[in-house]
Amino acid sequence: MSVAHKQATAQETNMATARHDYRFRPEPLWENGRFVPPTIVPIETAVSDWDWIDWLRYMRESSRNPLHGVTHMALTEFDEIATGMGAIFFTPTRPETVREAFVEKSGSLRHSKIRNAILKPALREGLLTAEGERWRQDRRALAPLFTPRHVNGYADGIRNSAGPHIARLLETDTIDFGAAMVDLTYQVLSDVMFSGELDGGRTANLREIDRFLSSMGRPDPLDFTRLPEWIPRPTRIGRMGIVKRMRRQVRELAESRLTRIADGAAVPDDLLSLILSIKGDDDRPFTMEQIEDQMITFIAAGHETTSRALTFLFYLLSQDDAARTRLETECDALDITRPAIEWAAALPFTYACFEEAMRLYPPAPFLSRELKQPETLGEHDLPTGSVVFGSLWALHRHRALWDQPDAFVPERFLPDVRDRIGRFQYLPFGLGPHICIGARFAQLEAIVLTALIARQFRLTLIGDHPWPIARVTIRPEKPLMMQIERRSQG
Ligand code: HEM
User: Which family is this protein grouped under (predicted)?
Assistant: First the structure.
């Protein structure tokens, strides 16, 4: 019996007697020789059949875990439209409609209120949250920092930074692997972007960032209403202290760098120095506010995403011996004296595993927008204010787009068959004008870190299977406990 069928049966039983059981958690299983990790069981009834109790429960559960907001209909049919609580919600899942909405007609979209409510208090006018002319100018100014030439230049920096951090983090018997990956990607980013000067490598800072991101990423129930953004959200009160402290640290570092530059002293050749040297459209350098916003944004957008992808990748490998052996064999054969930029080409299966992990657990799962003018998307005429919800979770697991949609099948991403996957059905880095500016950096970093870890260590799950929960990123709900076995000297 397929997972979808099994889950459907469980649901039907529930539906006969009660409302949707948001607490139901299926067991992991093997299906047609493939590992299927436990995953969210979506609500089956059509939104049009819901009464206000269904809506209240849906809002409460979606606030606790936004993955519960993805309905069975979104996973099985194309372009779900729902009306409720005075708003229209449109979830494009036909790849052509996804392209139409986020590329061709992206000019009709703005970031949604809920996205702004979650991200803006901390990121202010950083690239992830800015819009209109401000965003256009900043994107143009920052784009050169992420060209292939620049990112390739970071490759050996990533590799040199990662080695000692991996040794420090994984030289132990058991570990919360998710936390270790957050630590690792933060340290690598901090080294490459700020030459490790941001916090002098203090993990206290890291813990704060982690706490801040996990609290920031949870929508407040009031975010689902039409109440204006300036009305304080109860669950967000008290979180801003962390943001203020981080901003102060970032400003102090930027100011001390600027002083050193003005004094003619040598400064590290890193991303911060580049940000401090770029000029906007008006030929002026970024203001201190802009620098703070962009640096906080790069920290927030740049380390958690990659760490989640690695966390789920190593979890999936820990369950699939054949895939793990193949990946280890490939990584063992790698000549690590070669420049890191050449590694990806030598590791096609490893890269396929990374892509498949991001299909099953897209680190940034939702592209949340609303219409700023009436627009036709797919077959629907939508009024101003309609929510356009790009659900990478639904797209990546859509029953009509993927074979064995919930199973771990890395081979589908191998180079000889990769082009069978439609351009607009797999979008871990988003699409359109707001496509991830750091994608190339993340791909490079992920392959380097995966190869270095897999050559030296083997991880075995010793605790519960991870239950995916969406905050800003998809993360395991509880610590992902792994046993570590040393394989080689690296
Ligand atoms: C596996 C790692 C990553 C994933 C899956 C990822 C995913 C995404 C996605 C889906 C978006 C689009 C959001 C939207 O349209 O609402 C995005 C935007 C963005 N990402 Fe990433 N990201 C990753 C790594 C990074 C890194 C390493 C950086 C920087 C160093 C970064 C910086 C940004 C920024 C600044 C934006 C906003 C772009 C704009 O609106 O112009 N990301 N990312």
Answer: Belongs to the cytochrome P450 family.
Residue pLDDT, tens place only, 277-331: 888 777 888 899 999 999 889 988 888 899 999 999 999 999 999 999 999 999 9
Please give the distance, rounded to the nearest whole angstrom, from the Cα atom of residue 438 to the centre of ligand 1: 6
Per DSSP, the three-state class of 427 is coil
Q: Does residue 232 form part of some domain?
A: no
**128: CB partners within 8 A, 6+ apart:** 119, 297, 300, 301
Euclidean distance between CA atoms 430 and 164, whole angstroms: 32
Distance, in Å, from the CA atom of 180 to the CA atom of 195, rounded to the nearest integer, reads: 20
Verify whether ligand 1 is closer than 6 Å to residue 434 (CB atom): yes
CA–centroid distance, residue 303 to ligand 1 (Å): 10
Residue 23 lies in a domain: yes
How far is the centre of ligand 1, averaged over its atoms, from the C-alpha of 207 (Å)? 21
Q: Which ligand 1 atom is the nearest neighbour of the CA of 189?
A: 30
Q: What's the number of domains the chain is made of?
A: 1
Radius of gyration of the chain (CA): 22
Looking at 18-71, list the stretches that DSSP marks H as alpha helix, in order from N- to C-terminal side: 52-64
Q: How far does residue 180's CA lie from ligand 1's centre (Å)?
A: 21
Of the candidates 298, 280, 95, 271, which has an alpha carbon nearest to the alpha carbon of residue 193? Answer: 271
Give yes or no for residue 127 CB within 6 A of ligand 1.
yes
- The DSSP bridge pattern shows strands 481-486 and 174-176 to be antiparallel
Residues 1-40 have pLDDT tens digits of 444 445 555 544 444 457 899 999 999 999 999 999 999 9
Q: Which of 98, 299, 436, 448 to mutate to test the pocket of ligand 1 (most atoms within 8 A of CB)?
A: 436
Going by their DSSP bridges, the two strands 29-31 and 34-36 should be labelled as antiparallel
Short-list 346, 348, 362, CA closest to 313: 362
Answer yes or no: is the C-beta of 309 below 6 A from any ligand 1 atom.
yes
Whose C-alpha lies nearest to ligand 1, atom 43? Answer: 436
What is the token pair recorded at 327? 């990946």
475 token code pair: 């993360």
Q: What is the ipTM of this complex?
A: 1.00
Asked if residue 144 belongs to a domain, the reply is no
Are 443 and 313 contacting, i.e. CB atoms less than 8 angstroms apart? no
Q: How far is the CA of 276 from the centre of ligand 1 (A)?
A: 21
Q: Where in the sequence is the domain holding 77, given as residue range(s)?
A: 1-104+365-424
262 domain residue, yes or no? no
